[in-house]
Amino acid sequence: MRSQGNPITWLTCYEYSFARALNETDLDMILVGDSGGMVALGYPDTTPVTMSEMILLTSSVRRGAPNKFIVGDMPKGSYEASDVDAVNNAMRFIKEAGCDAVKLEGGSSMANRAKAIANSGIPVVGHIGLTPQSSAAFGGYRVVGREPSEVENLRRSIQELEEAGVFAVLLEAIPPSVSKVLTKNATSIIFGIGAGKYTHGQLLILHDLLGLYPNFRPKFAKCFVPEVLMEFNDALVENEDLAAFGRDTRKDGLYQITRLAVEAYIRQVRSGSFPDELYSYRD
Ligand code: KIV
Known about the structure:
The chain is α/β, with parallel strands linked by helices. 40% of the residues lie in helices and 14% in strands. The protein has helices at 16-23, 36-39, 51-64, 83-95, 111-119, 148-164, 176-185, 206-209, 229-237, 242-249, 254-271, and strands at 8-12, 29-32, 69-73, 101-105, 124-129, 168-172, 189-193, 201-204. It has an eight-stranded parallel barrel with strand order 1-2-3-4-5-6-7-8, surrounded by six helices. Helix 4 packs across helix 5 (111-119). Bound molecules: 3-methyl-2-oxobutanoic acid.
């Protein structure tokens, strides 16, 4: 898809029923993010999330989405201390939760961990820019890449992660003009979340796309529900017997709204209309 210039669509998911809905769409990839610690488990941030919790969430997503490429997100504390920790925990995602790949936060400083995991035969995604697990050490949740030194760090991180063997790098909260240059010079697949429209693929948090997380919504997080409600309603009003419609089709509730909203996201990413300026940080 990268070589053909087809934008790749990626969404987070944390449990079975939503995964079923995603599995019925043409979505390319799923991330079981440690953001699940916040939106599904109710923690204030991702710091407390454990490997056991990630395995529980990820294995339920795998049961719901048997056909999707699933990336498991390594939680804080599961990979930093040693290569052995990193490989053992990455292997749990593969063997216990049926993942296809893992993601870990950190650029140059985590390149050795990424290398150890990649050398063990597990596909790895890097994650740089705003890295929520270590945001406290880097000045909180903020856009990264407005200073020349930050841009140079991002460039070097991508290069070192690629040399370590990652197949993709996720850029989070980066001005579009910066991610455009980084994407152009990369040899791996560059995904963005809050990084503008020039990356090879886009990631969004499912709960943001569905307007399901009331605590906080970053600028780049578009809720796709309002624009599909008309379509949902049109299907309902055509049916006099709503109870029978629901029983026969299961298209009368949140499952169907989820599918429609996710399909709208996929269409807009593929056509290049999402993310537009409204959902991108300023350069
Ligand atoms: O945990 C997650 O969902 C993530 C995204 C915020 C990029 O890592």
